[in-house]
């Protein structure tokens, strides 16, 4: 008996029914491996685990296993498969940052999902997501957008008393935000107080830290036509420098021993939090757009892809379709404070949000990371530069020329890559 | 959560086997979490240079996950003390209850050496602040448990090393065979690059060779990570200091920050035979930005000599082959090569019902030129004629020095009219040649060509027949004033006319 019928959970439309029944028809103890990207918030892994439990209830014949990989390890595993597919098999389903799609589809690792995943067939995603998903080929899509996050500023209004009279106005610019941070640092505060907290930090300054500010200054890693790298352009270097300056001046603590000992700082001990996630139980906090963002914001999208070497690509695509069903997507994304990519679910969440005004502005036409072949590598080059600079800052050995030198090197490498690929 | 538990080696307690370094550690974290009712367990590697603890794996809330976080332990804290003294210890704070277990594991030397490299770090067992502390007895038990578990770690390294050695041995065996059997340049370059990619799997391998005369470094082939090989013959680098990074490397002048920066993911292998550099092999992991392992570096460098020899051998082989197939003076293929190609082209024309034309050219009064001006001038004439012929042909046309001053040109997919146009052009260009003869009164020499043309299928149905008809047409031209062209079909008509006229005359006479 078809398990779609057995579970009395009819799929949302006939196309999906077709997919799932195809899965059922061949589903005699199907085994599916999934690689998930690691997240600083373990609620993501738990949410995925509970989603898999629901899937197993609905489709008892399909066995699923998942492995959480760090971004670096995911990258290495994908390249390891290219180097030696026999020794390094890929999972059937892989979560990737949206802008890895072009690279790994061109390297032949990903299956075309355009005709197999219902929301892709019907293009049920916001336009700004679709634009980057299919930059070169509108007819095909090698991954399905899953969830989206956008960095924003959360202010604890109590801590800003006497510091900032009109936060929406004063914190709209980077300079206003910086001035508020200075004022917060100068006053006598409790020992545990932090002016600024970044819960997603990996310890050093990373690309995800500097990108929003870089975008805010209208900078980018490549020129608009993607013909040359622009790491050293004033807007790009200035955006990076703005963030590094926070570390140099001690507004953010690099490689924080405090974080090792006590974990992320509780929100009630911070005045500002820069986070891409909604804060759980954020009483007393006000959400504002990322300081210094012109117009809309900057967003990061994560997609699900089916590996080209999957032994059951149709089954894997059917699983992706199931994950993309609105109830599953909503429950998963809600649990760790991000937005679903599916258009109806995305719009509904926007309406329901307490800070819907801010989110509407952020998501009106957000910048996404370009989905071009060399962009992920360019990010790695910048990441390495930022790591070197972070170590220098931590050793109190940093000078502005260090940034120049690192960016010149990284830009040279990125330009060379552009000439090769 | 455990993916494909391949039974490779065992833990002390259960004799369960895992595939890979982190699978072992993940299993340890899962087991210790269960054993001691933990809320979390984390595995940190310690970098002594930066004094950072690098979180690699964590097990919490019933899920294991890799994670990257680089943090510094607070000076004077329990964690810092555990690392410094290598003594495990328990600690408690508002953030939770902790037990720190420092470890020292022996990783095999990634550079392929025989020694083990010690890697230190910390396992942190965690309980929430509301739960019980780690008592001295429990801490001791947890420490003993982890020590016992980690005792078997060397087996994981042993099996990893065994796998690596197995790969190395097969690489050495098969690559040596590839390099030894490579003969023809084009094929052998492909085999060499494909062989390197099969065993090393770099993002890209490129081969550049120094052109004869040492003036240029010329791109040959590039193989990507998917094994696709393409020509990079469009890349030409002047072999001058400062002209390009690759030129500097070949000239032994490469220095600077860029080279330092690239050294982990790019390897330049100059190819030298008997102390003479013949090219450059470049392998890189620039797209993935992954480090080329020192063991791979060493191995590829050791292959450098063999690769250079194979490349040089195949170039020599091509050169010898070229000498045996081409005429050195005119640069045209020789008759033996022509006969082989003629057969092939003829079969193709027959099979696909396509036309085929044959041009037979002869230098007028060539014997007189040799006798009057000497063989050196005769050679210059032939050389110039070869040049004119080569510069006027399509890619599919095939010329040849058939013998002495006779040239034959095969024109696939060409009918009589097209062949006649080409022949006319050749006649004109050659008649415009002025061969310098300094010692003669006129100081220069003019030459003309006589050309006969035959076509398939109109004039003949076989190879021999086609040659004969072209020769007949040439003879017709030679016997009718030289310096022009004739199609066999026209010659046949003319011959008929002459025959008829001769017959008429005979009739009249009679």
Explain briefly what this protein structure is.
The complex is a heterodimer of chains A (421) and B (510). Chain A is α/β, with parallel strands linked by helices.
Topology diagram in text:
The complex is a heterodimer of chains A (421) and B (510).
Chain A lengths: L2 H4 L7 H12 L4 E8 L5 H16 L3 E8 L1 H13 L9 E5 L3 H6 L11 H4 L5 H7 L10 E6 L2 E5 L10 H4 L3 H13 L7 E4 L9 H10 L17 H15 L8 H6 L7 E6 L9 E5 L10 E7 L6 H11 L2 H10 L3 E2 L2 H10 L3 H7 L12 H20 L5 H21 L1
Parallel strand pairs in A: 1-2, 1-3, 6-7
Antiparallel strand pairs in A: 3-9, 4-9, 4-10, 5-7, 5-8
Helix pairs in contact in A: 2-13, 3-14, 10-11, 17-18
Chain B lengths: L20 H15 L4 E8 L4 E9 L2 E9 L6 H8 L3 E5 L2 E13 L7 E12 L8 H16 L1 H29 L3 H16 L3 E7 L5 E9 L4 E3 L4 E3 L6 H6 L6 H6 L3 E8 L2 E9 L9 H32 L9 H17 L4 E8 L2 H8 L1 H18 L5 E6 L2 E7 L3 H16 L3 E2 L7 E2 L3 E8 L6 H16 L6 E3 H22 L1
